[in-house]
Design a protein that fits this description.
By secondary structure, this protein is mainly alpha-helical. Helix content is about 75%, strand content about 0%. It is globular, with a radius of gyration of 15 Å.
């Protein structure tokens, strides 16, 4: 249990939660898109969640729910954010490890 109180533990929990949230957010917005007059998740929020660490969850959600896959800014933008996160994680791993 003490592992969660370390910086790597907190970062891991954050990354898991933000990716789960991004995945579920894509599913929710897809569901809402099929209902007339339903409140949608703003595209800005979908991108912000991805940028704040949820890029893997957003990309997986996009393809799992087949949502926003025809929008070029999502098909290109979300994977680019994911690549940026992977490069950043690799850099930090190399520098701190």
């Amino acid at each position: 249990m003490e592992w969660f109180l370390t910086l790597p533990g907190l970062i891991t929990v954050y990354i898991v939660l933000v990716n789960l949230f991004a995945f579920l957010q894509m599913g929710w917005d897809k569901r809402q898109s099929k209902r007339p007059e339903a409140r949608r998740v703003p595209e800005k929020r979908l991108f912000m969640t991805a940028a704040l660490g949820g890029s893997l969850g957003a990309v997986l959600g996009m393809f799992r729910f087949r949502h926003k896959t025809k929008h070029w800014k999502f098909r290109l933008g979300l994977p680019l954010i994911l690549v940026g996160h992977v490069v950043l994680a690799g850099f930090l791993w190399y520098q701190l490890g």
